[in-house]
Specification:
183 residues; alpha+beta; Nucleoside Triphosphate Pyrophosphohydrolase; seven-stranded mixed beta sheet; two-stranded antiparallel ribbon; 3 helices; 22% helix
Length: 183
């Protein structure tokens, strides 16, 4: 039996505190809710592949905020559900590189050619319960933590620098306070 290693890239797209998820249904067979991802094409960078896959599968034009990490899993290929597979029963080892992304609208459209029947933006707790795979739930949680950290940083909530507060001349000298910690 052959083993095959595949590299994929995907995006956790967050807009207004909601995350993009897709529902895959192949030939009436329940496949489940997933986040957009797909295989790397020749001469393509991980970032390019992630952006392309998000756009192809959901119609969303996104931009990358940061790299989130990778997930890895293996599965046994089934030719009847993975037409691109030469050998039924082949073991596929997949590494998915994930990026935190954002966009500027809720507009999306599922890619029917890849059997996506629905797509939408959901609150974190909703998406957590919809997503089929544990590794995608974990990477989504990491994405929300990073998204919230970036949002606070951009709003000036925690720049990582100490703040100096001015006092009237008659009061005690100026003092330095530590910024709020970011968990």
């Amino acid at each position: 039996m052959n083993n095959k290693n595949i590299v994929s890239c995907g995006g956790v797209v967050i807009y207004r505190n909601k995350v993009l998820v897709l529902y895959k249904n192949q030939n009436g067979r329940y496949m489940g809710w997933v986040m957009p991802k797909g295989n790397l094409e020749p001469n393509e960078t991980f970032k390019q592949a992630a952006l392309r896959e998000v756009n192809e599968e959901s119609g969303v034009s996104a931009r990358i905020m940061k790299y989130l990490g990778k997930t890895q899993y293996s599965f046994k290929a089934q030719a009847q559900f993975h037409g691109k597979c030469d050998n039924d029963g082949e073991i596929i080892s997949k590494t998915v590189h994930w990026y935190l992304m954002t966009t500027n609208s809720f507009h999306c459209k599922p890619q029917a050619e890849e059997f996506f029947a629905d797509v939408g933006f959901y609150k974190q707790h909703e998406a957590y319960h919809l997503l089929k795979f544990h590794d995608e739930k974990q990477i989504m949680r990491r994405a929300f933590t990073e998204y919230e950290r970036e949002s606070r940083r951009k709003k000036g909530g925690s720049s990582g620098k100490a703040a100096i507060r001015r006092q009237p001349a008659s009061a005690s000298p100026a003092y330095v306070t530590k910024p709020d910690t970011v968990s």
